[in-house]
Specification:
Elements: E1 5-10, E2 16-21, H1 37-40, H2 52-68, E3 72-77, E4 83-93, E5 99-110, E6 119-120, E7 127-129, E8 135-136, E9 142-143, E10 155-159, H3 162-176
Parallel strand pairs: 6-10, 7-10
Antiparallel strand pairs: 1-2, 1-5, 3-4, 4-5, 7-8, 8-9
The structure holds zinc ion.
Residues 129, 131-132, 134, 160-161, 163-164 line the site of zinc ion.
């Protein structure tokens, strides 16, 4: 099993000030980083995120938490080839414009059949969402990996799928509009913004 919980604090320049939990095993960088916590302290969180859409979304979510001083909660999936894993990410305001990210493992299930491992390859024709793990093969729709009729591609370009972009934008808008975060029940997501 991968990490149960990892948490870290960044400053307003996204520098990692403090890391707890199991960063060393975290899949934050889509499995593409073997960064160890003592080597990543004071580096920018954003440099550990593989793809631009996810980097931009992470930045936007942290900034709205800083601006509104409200917590943002959002569910995401981070699978391994053998396990379907759901996490809840909470971004909380702290003093001095710092924010705390907490990633909690909420649910883990074995896939009936393991996938062959995948790796990030910028520019690959096959896309994979870093937030829900869905895959888009050329000329096909976004599909959860367990529903693929073809084998899981070995090389994928990580990005955000339209559903996850929408979900993130809604969570950000909810904070900007002063509504309580994470209470949207639209789109099949649970009471804490979790993927269902
Ligand atoms: Zn997605």
């Amino acid at each position: 099993m991968k990490f149960q919980q990892v948490y870290f604090v960044v400053d307003d320049a996204f520098r990692l000030l403090w890391i707890g939990g199991e960063w060393d095993e975290s899949a934050l960088a889509n499995g593409g980083s073997d960064a160890r916590s003592n080597e990543v302290l004071s580096t920018s969180l954003l440099t550990h995120i593989t793809d631009e859409p996810t980097r931009r979304a992470t930045q936007t979510m942290a900034e709205v938490v800083q601006q509104t001083q409200q917590a943002l909660r959002i569910g995401y999936r981070c699978d391994s080839p053998t396990l379907k894993r759901r996490y809840l990410m909470t971004i909380q305001p702290m003093k001095d414009n710092r924010v705390l990210f907490v990633h909690d493992l909420r649910d883990v299930q074995s896939f009936p059949t393991s996938f062959s491992p995948w790796r990030h390859e910028a520019g690959a024709a096959e896309l994979k969402c870093s937030f829900c793990c869905s895959v888009r093969l050329p000329d096909a729709d976004w599909t959860p990996p367990e529903s693929l009729t073809a084998p899981h591609p070995e090389a994928v370009d990580f990005t955000l799928c339209p559903n996850c972009e929408t979900r993130i934008n809604e969570a950000v808008a909810a904070l900007r509009d002063g509504r309580k975060s994470g209470l949207s029940t639209t789109g099949g997501y649970g009471p804490e913004g979790e993927l269902t």
